[in-house]
Amino acid sequence: MFHVEKLNLKFARAMNRVPEGDVGVAVSGGSDSLALLHLGADWAQKNRRTLKVATIDHRLRPESIAESQYVKKISTRLSIEHTTLTWLEKPSGNIQKLARDARHRLLQNWSTEKNLSVVLLGHTLEDNAETIMIRLIRGSGVDGLVGISQYKKINNLVIFRPLLQIKREELRTYLIDKKISWIDDPSNFDERFQRVKVRKLMPHLADLGLTISKINGFAEHMKRVKVALDSEVINFAISNVEQKFWGDLEIRQDAFIELPNEFQLRLLSLSLRWISGNFYRPRFKSLKILLDLIIKHQSIAGFTLMGCLVKCRRKKIVFTREFSAIPKRQKI
After folding, report:
1. DSSP letter string over 173-229?
2. Whole-structure pTM value
3. pLDDT of 295-315, one tens digit each?
4. How far apart, in whole angstroms, are the C-alpha atoms of residue 133 and residue 198?
């Protein structure tokens, strides 16, 4: 049982960052999330905290209903409230992205309804390494190569990933020690998905010396770089960016032109996200087109991106919310 105690201690250290209040746990029935549920249950009992569990049924496989019922049975055994969140609408397009967006939306609504301070997700050290490799293949820059964030806020949903520095093998050994079985999702073996292809590639990379630990170490280096870059951009913004009382954001154009290229791109991205309220960054290609227009022409009548209108006038780069992107006021 030494392994169980050691893992509980490692988990408890990660959970020191969790805010006060009731805590949600997203559990699919796989090994990672089931280990998260049991570790969370032990932690909650010792710390007199309340856990609530949600399982998302995407209704993409006939087995999904039984899997939700399995998680509910375990949650009931642990005296933890369980809710099944069902994704009913199925729009056409990238099913993985649509399912991810649906998960966030369903968890956000559930978190608000249950008044949760945070929702725990079961991503592991391997998940982080796979994500970094996927982003590297896609050509991501520094921000993408920092990997998965342990703490993240998406709109009103606060996410925390306490298993991010723990290997999947440790979690499965923990479950075996406690005689707990888990469900293997068939999609985890479907090579149509890029993550599965990358997962199968990882042992071959390890043979070349590129282990999961080294990939995660690389991400730590990227995090330090990101923090340093963001800090410099914020220092520049304090003196050269002004928020108007009506909402526009203005950047001194002459000072902006003198910035290093990386700082320019970061400042444009931050400005667009600030004005639009979007969580995700704009596509790099679109951002580069905007930067080239500002640098080469230094005069823009109007460039639209992410629901924002960007203009260069009176030696200022001005960001305005597009009228069509402003939420309509609800009549009472």
Report:
1. HHHHHTT------GGGG-TTSHHHHHHHHHHHHHHTT--HHHHHHHHHHHHHHHHHH
2. 0.86
3. 887 667 788 999 999 999 889
4. 7
